Amino acid sequence: MNVTVTGQHVEITPAIREYVMEKFGKIRNHFDHPIDVSVVLTVEKIKQHVEANAHVNGRDLFVETTNPDMYAAIDDLAKTLDRQIIRLKEKRHDQRNGQPLKHLSNP
To answer: Would you give per-residue pLDDT tens digits along the chain (107 residues)?
Structure first.
């Protein structure tokens, strides 16, 4: 997995870089082949803004979050991206197996 971490108005310390890599390690478990993730950390006054672009299986996923604490923002971002990737995998699996999508089927 290729993870690029950049900062706007913030210095990327080795501790922050290591924390981002640790949190995005769960995403690596979903895929056999490498995926590209670019993470941008921004500080705007007292808000810590984190956004990520992930290129997965020919699709681009974008996630962003804002929190007063940088580490909490990174946690939220990793959870949200993980949920989106799982949802994408389930959707592709259902389509490939010819099963109707959950939101389209009538009870």
So the answer is: 788 999 998 999 999 999 999 998 888 777 766 678 899 999 998 899 999 998 887 788 999 999 999 999 999 999 999 898 888 888 776 666 665 555 544 44
CA distance 58 to 92: 12
Range of the domain at 57: 2-96
Which CATH number belongs to the domain containing residue 84 in this structure? Answer: 3.30.160.100
- Residue 52, both tokens: 């990520």
Q: Tell me phi and psi for residue 44, to 5 degrees.
A: -125, 100
Number of structural domains found in the chain: 1
Whether the CB-CB separation of 84 and 61 falls below 8 Å is answered with yes
